[in-house]
């Protein structure tokens, strides 16, 4: 709800500059392998995300009971004008816009005007309402026209940013290749960390303890991101070769992920391994301690996801498990809708404390608390993948 004059807020120019900034930030956050893969789909995504549904007024206008005060020549009228569209558009300012002096509140589905008329001239109301509606409708028409002009620029912004990012990645790769031909590049290991032996990418684990307990290993955030990155890279193979994977069920897809993880972490990733109160889909252990747990499912609705969280993942995770993941595979459903429902299901879970920064097009990250020990918290990342 807003309590300010119509068409008297942020200018469209400033709004769409912020849109361009948002587009640039999202493309900057994309994994290099995704940049430029399907630019038409990326353009469509941003056009949908930043489209402004400028309201259209309804003819079904009504008013509340007039407020008539004795010994006062004026009567108070509350006018209700329904509309369809995004109510936030009423507080954007086009270059040309009407000045509405009457008090107005923009609700999500109607405008509420506070009018005053002379008791002696009640017929003036009809003319006053007509003028007011024409002013608002004209302002919306102008806003709609200017929004359309700005939205036409979105494809150009996306293409320009993708080209810039592509050039930056190519330049970085070329420099890396040139330098590695002179001196081999080696990852630096920090002696203070406990490193699980691996062949390619080290899995950083640090001991977590207090004065009364022996140290317990906990996966570092960088290693957690590395594991999730490995999973995302493998699923991109699913997405790009749907004819190969279309007949596979959840267990088959999970096994392929385990092949990639075992190749990276020397067999530390296992499937259907007992942990806590049951079996979990993907588990990585370090020195007999669980440091990463993930559950997979093929999307069939929010109820199934909630059940997967409550009846499996959260039960399987022991007190020391601090980083968990939910991997959702979409099969021939509206992927945008699946992502939205997945994120809403996770963030509205009663154990969810807060959202965490995680710039990802089809995922989100949250801080959770345990039901039996609210002071013990853990990170849960949910990721959705489109596997036709």
Structure overview:
There is one protein chain. With 388 residues, the protein is an alpha+beta fold. It has 2 domains: 10-154, no CATH class; 194-386, Restriction Endonuclease, CATH 3.40.91. It contains 9 helices and 20 strands. It has helices at residues 12-29, 39-49, 124-151, 154-182, 221-240, 242-245, 250-265, 302-316, 335-347; strands spanning 10-11, 56-57, 62-63, 67-68, 74-84, 92-93, 103-106, 110-118, 194-196, 203-208, 216-219, 269-270, 273-275, 278-280, 282-286, 289-298, 323-330, 352-356, 363-369, 377-386. The strands form 5 sheets. Strands 12-15-16-17-20-19-18 form a 7-stranded mixed β-sheet, sandwiched between helices. A hairpin with a 2-residue loop joins strand 13 and strand 14. Helix 1 (12-29) runs parallel beside helix 4, helix 2 (39-49) crosses helix 4 (154-182) and helix 8 (302-316) crosses helix 9 (335-347). The longest helix has 29 residues, at 154-182.
